[in-house]
Design goal:
Layout lengths: L5 H6 L3 H10 L10 E2 L6 E12 L11 H6 L5 E6 L10 H9 L4 E4 L2 E2 L2 H6 L4 E3 L1 E2 L8 E6 L3 E3 L2 E3 L4 E5 L2 E5 L4 H23 L4 H4 L2 H12 L1
Parallel strand pairs: 2-3, 3-4, 4-6, 5-7
Antiparallel strand pairs: 1-6, 2-8, 2-11, 9-10, 11-12
Length: 222
Amino acid sequence: MTPLPLLDRLAGLDTNTVSDALDFLNLPGATVGLRPLWACPKIVGRASTIQLGPKTGTAPTVHLISPVIGRVETNDRVLVIAGGIEGISCWGDILANAAKTRGLRGSVIDGFSRDIEGSEAIDYPVFGRGVTMVSARNRVVQVSSGEPVRMAGVTVQEGDYVIADRCGTVFVPAARIGEVLDLGERIARRQDGMVAAVRAGRSVEDVMHDKEFEAINQEQAK
Protein backbone atom coordinates (compact mmCIF):
# COMPACT_ATOMS: atom_id res chain seq x y z
CA MET A 1 0.00 0.00 0.00
CA THR A 2 1.34 3.43 -0.96
CA PRO A 3 1.87 5.64 2.12
CA LEU A 4 -0.38 8.69 2.37
CA PRO A 5 1.29 12.03 1.59
CA LEU A 6 2.28 14.06 4.64
CA LEU A 7 -0.43 16.69 4.15
CA ASP A 8 -3.12 14.02 3.86
CA ARG A 9 -1.91 12.45 7.09
CA LEU A 10 -1.91 15.82 8.83
CA ALA A 11 -5.44 16.49 7.55
CA GLY A 12 -6.53 13.24 9.19
CA LEU A 13 -5.70 14.68 12.63
CA ASP A 14 -6.99 17.71 14.54
CA THR A 15 -5.19 20.51 16.35
CA ASN A 16 -5.77 18.91 19.75
CA THR A 17 -3.96 15.73 18.73
CA VAL A 18 -1.13 17.56 16.98
CA SER A 19 -0.70 19.79 20.04
CA ASP A 20 -0.48 16.67 22.23
CA ALA A 21 2.16 15.17 19.94
CA LEU A 22 4.23 18.34 20.14
CA ASP A 23 3.91 18.24 23.94
CA PHE A 24 5.24 14.69 24.07
CA LEU A 25 8.18 15.74 21.89
CA ASN A 26 8.80 18.96 23.89
CA LEU A 27 8.29 21.06 20.77
CA PRO A 28 6.55 24.45 20.52
CA GLY A 29 3.90 25.00 17.88
CA ALA A 30 0.46 25.27 19.50
CA THR A 31 -0.85 28.84 19.64
CA VAL A 32 -3.60 30.55 21.59
CA GLY A 33 -5.94 33.11 20.04
CA LEU A 34 -5.57 32.40 16.31
CA ARG A 35 -9.08 31.14 15.66
CA PRO A 36 -11.45 30.97 12.66
CA LEU A 37 -12.84 34.40 11.81
CA TRP A 38 -15.91 32.88 10.19
CA ALA A 39 -17.32 29.33 10.38
CA CYS A 40 -14.67 28.14 7.96
CA PRO A 41 -13.37 24.62 7.38
CA LYS A 42 -10.09 23.25 8.70
CA ILE A 43 -6.99 24.21 6.73
CA VAL A 44 -3.83 22.17 6.35
CA GLY A 45 -0.82 23.25 4.30
CA ARG A 46 2.72 24.63 4.12
CA ALA A 47 3.54 28.10 5.41
CA SER A 48 4.29 31.05 3.16
CA THR A 49 5.51 33.57 5.74
CA ILE A 50 4.94 37.32 5.68
CA GLN A 51 6.13 39.93 8.19
CA LEU A 52 4.17 43.17 8.54
CA GLY A 53 4.99 46.32 10.46
CA PRO A 54 3.82 49.91 10.99
CA LYS A 55 4.22 52.30 8.07
CA THR A 56 6.64 55.07 8.95
CA GLY A 57 7.11 57.00 5.70
CA THR A 58 4.72 58.84 3.40
CA ALA A 59 5.73 57.38 0.03
CA PRO A 60 3.19 55.09 -1.71
CA THR A 61 3.92 51.37 -1.37
CA VAL A 62 2.76 48.16 -3.02
CA HIS A 63 -0.21 46.82 -1.08
CA LEU A 64 0.92 44.45 1.65
CA ILE A 65 0.79 40.68 0.97
CA SER A 66 -0.12 41.08 -2.71
CA PRO A 67 3.42 40.33 -4.01
CA VAL A 68 3.49 37.02 -2.12
CA ILE A 69 0.11 35.97 -3.48
CA GLY A 70 1.31 36.76 -6.99
CA ARG A 71 4.33 34.46 -6.60
CA VAL A 72 2.46 31.35 -5.38
CA GLU A 73 2.89 28.45 -7.80
CA THR A 74 1.70 25.39 -5.84
CA ASN A 75 -1.64 24.41 -4.30
CA ASP A 76 -0.32 23.48 -0.83
CA ARG A 77 0.26 26.96 0.59
CA VAL A 78 -1.20 28.78 3.60
CA LEU A 79 -0.35 32.45 4.14
CA VAL A 80 1.15 32.93 7.62
CA ILE A 81 1.03 36.66 8.36
CA ALA A 82 2.81 38.14 11.41
CA GLY A 83 3.08 41.64 12.81
CA GLY A 84 -0.54 42.73 12.79
CA ILE A 85 -1.45 45.83 14.79
CA GLU A 86 -4.31 45.80 17.30
CA GLY A 87 -7.58 46.85 15.66
CA ILE A 88 -6.09 47.46 12.20
CA SER A 89 -6.83 45.18 9.27
CA CYS A 90 -4.13 43.22 7.47
CA TRP A 91 -6.54 41.13 5.38
CA GLY A 92 -9.66 41.81 3.31
CA ASP A 93 -11.93 40.52 0.59
CA ILE A 94 -9.86 41.68 -2.40
CA LEU A 95 -6.83 39.82 -1.06
CA ALA A 96 -9.06 36.81 -0.33
CA ASN A 97 -10.29 36.71 -3.92
CA ALA A 98 -6.73 36.98 -5.25
CA ALA A 99 -5.57 34.21 -2.91
CA LYS A 100 -8.48 31.97 -3.89
CA THR A 101 -7.66 32.48 -7.56
CA ARG A 102 -4.03 31.46 -6.95
CA GLY A 103 -5.03 28.25 -5.18
CA LEU A 104 -4.04 29.22 -1.65
CA ARG A 105 -5.62 27.09 1.08
CA GLY A 106 -6.22 29.88 3.59
CA SER A 107 -4.62 32.60 5.70
CA VAL A 108 -3.53 32.66 9.33
CA ILE A 109 -3.06 36.20 10.64
CA ASP A 110 -1.50 37.26 13.91
CA GLY A 111 -3.74 40.28 13.54
CA PHE A 112 -7.14 41.38 12.28
CA SER A 113 -9.24 41.06 9.13
CA ARG A 114 -11.84 43.38 7.65
CA ASP A 115 -14.55 42.50 5.10
CA ILE A 116 -14.78 39.04 6.61
CA GLU A 117 -18.06 38.41 4.79
CA GLY A 118 -16.11 38.67 1.54
CA SER A 119 -13.84 35.80 2.56
CA GLU A 120 -16.84 33.79 3.73
CA ALA A 121 -18.71 34.37 0.47
CA ILE A 122 -15.98 32.63 -1.51
CA ASP A 123 -15.27 29.93 1.12
CA TYR A 124 -11.77 31.23 1.80
CA PRO A 125 -10.63 30.25 5.33
CA VAL A 126 -9.21 33.01 7.53
CA PHE A 127 -7.84 32.48 11.03
CA GLY A 128 -6.68 35.32 13.23
CA ARG A 129 -7.14 37.39 16.37
CA GLY A 130 -10.29 39.23 15.37
CA VAL A 131 -12.21 41.37 12.90
CA THR A 132 -12.21 45.11 12.39
CA MET A 133 -13.33 47.72 9.87
CA VAL A 134 -10.14 49.84 10.00
CA SER A 135 -8.06 49.78 6.81
CA ALA A 136 -4.36 48.91 6.70
CA ARG A 137 -3.74 51.56 4.06
CA ASN A 138 -1.12 54.10 5.23
CA ARG A 139 -0.92 52.24 8.55
CA VAL A 140 0.70 48.84 7.87
CA VAL A 141 3.30 47.71 5.33
CA GLN A 142 4.92 44.44 4.36
CA VAL A 143 8.43 44.22 5.82
CA SER A 144 9.58 40.85 4.47
CA SER A 145 8.45 37.47 3.16
CA GLY A 146 9.87 33.97 3.21
CA GLU A 147 11.69 34.67 6.49
CA PRO A 148 11.04 33.28 9.99
CA VAL A 149 8.13 35.02 11.76
CA ARG A 150 6.66 34.96 15.27
CA MET A 151 3.03 33.89 15.39
CA ALA A 152 1.38 34.20 18.83
CA GLY A 153 4.75 33.43 20.41
CA VAL A 154 5.73 30.58 18.06
CA THR A 155 8.50 30.89 15.47
CA VAL A 156 7.35 29.72 12.04
CA GLN A 157 9.71 29.09 9.12
CA GLU A 158 8.86 29.19 5.44
CA GLY A 159 7.60 25.73 4.50
CA ASP A 160 6.62 24.64 8.01
CA TYR A 161 3.35 22.73 8.32
CA VAL A 162 0.12 24.42 9.39
CA ILE A 163 -3.09 22.94 10.75
CA ALA A 164 -5.97 25.17 11.87
CA ASP A 165 -9.47 24.25 12.98
CA ARG A 166 -12.17 25.41 15.40
CA CYS A 167 -9.84 24.97 18.39
CA GLY A 168 -7.09 27.17 16.92
CA THR A 169 -3.85 26.96 14.97
CA VAL A 170 -0.78 24.75 15.31
CA PHE A 171 2.53 24.97 13.46
CA VAL A 172 4.85 21.98 12.99
CA PRO A 173 8.54 22.37 12.04
CA ALA A 174 9.09 20.84 8.62
CA ALA A 175 12.12 18.91 9.86
CA ARG A 176 9.99 17.14 12.53
CA ILE A 177 6.77 16.50 10.63
CA GLY A 178 7.34 12.76 10.22
CA GLU A 179 7.75 12.00 13.91
CA VAL A 180 4.93 14.39 14.86
CA LEU A 181 2.58 12.57 12.48
CA ASP A 182 3.67 9.13 13.66
CA LEU A 183 3.08 10.10 17.28
CA GLY A 184 -0.14 11.99 16.51
CA GLU A 185 -1.60 8.96 14.78
CA ARG A 186 -0.75 6.76 17.78
CA ILE A 187 -2.35 9.30 20.12
CA ALA A 188 -5.49 9.43 17.96
CA ARG A 189 -5.81 5.64 17.98
CA ARG A 190 -5.36 5.46 21.75
CA GLN A 191 -7.87 8.27 22.35
CA ASP A 192 -10.38 6.58 20.06
CA GLY A 193 -9.95 3.45 22.17
CA MET A 194 -10.47 5.43 25.38
CA VAL A 195 -13.71 6.91 24.03
CA ALA A 196 -14.90 3.45 23.04
CA ALA A 197 -14.04 2.14 26.51
CA VAL A 198 -16.07 4.88 28.22
CA ARG A 199 -19.03 4.26 25.93
CA ALA A 200 -18.82 0.57 26.77
CA GLY A 201 -19.19 1.37 30.45
CA ARG A 202 -15.61 1.38 31.72
CA SER A 203 -14.92 3.86 34.55
CA VAL A 204 -13.80 7.23 33.16
CA GLU A 205 -11.56 7.59 36.22
CA ASP A 206 -9.71 4.46 35.13
CA VAL A 207 -9.74 5.31 31.42
CA MET A 208 -8.25 8.78 31.98
CA HIS A 209 -5.66 7.75 34.59
CA ASP A 210 -2.18 9.12 33.93
CA LYS A 211 -0.92 5.57 33.28
CA GLU A 212 -3.00 5.46 30.11
CA PHE A 213 -1.26 8.53 28.75
CA GLU A 214 2.12 7.33 29.95
CA ALA A 215 1.58 4.27 27.75
CA ILE A 216 1.92 6.57 24.74
CA ASN A 217 5.39 7.54 25.93
CA GLN A 218 6.27 3.88 26.30
CA GLU A 219 5.10 3.15 22.76
CA GLN A 220 7.18 6.07 21.51
CA ALA A 221 10.30 4.69 23.18
CA LYS A 222 10.01 1.30 21.44
